[in-house]
Description:
By secondary structure, the protein is mainly α. The protein is built from 5 helices and no strands.
Amino acid sequence: MDTSLLPVAAQPLERLRASVALDESRARFLSRSRSRATERTYAADLRHFFRSLGNQDPQGIPTIDEVRAVTWREVTAYRDRYYLPDARTGRTLLAPETGARRLSVIASFFDELGRAGVV
């Protein structure tokens, strides 16, 4: 939602609602797994992605502004940085399986946020 169209007094309330929806969506996304280990892995994957974008939160939890600022360009740059082979060595920084899982987690997370109306 474009909050610039809201009256100034309503913008903080919309921001609070969006932040709550983000927190709820993140918790729902992570709790879908039946395995606690998988839940931790997915949370670590999201932390890795958002930290690569500059997130400074010790828990790696993004703000609503950080989430809404993500475009396909950031995801592509993330993929290229970690998962495309280096031209000199032919090796990637992380294993292809790790890359596939992390990109899948990012896509699923943003699908969840889209269903919740956060993005």
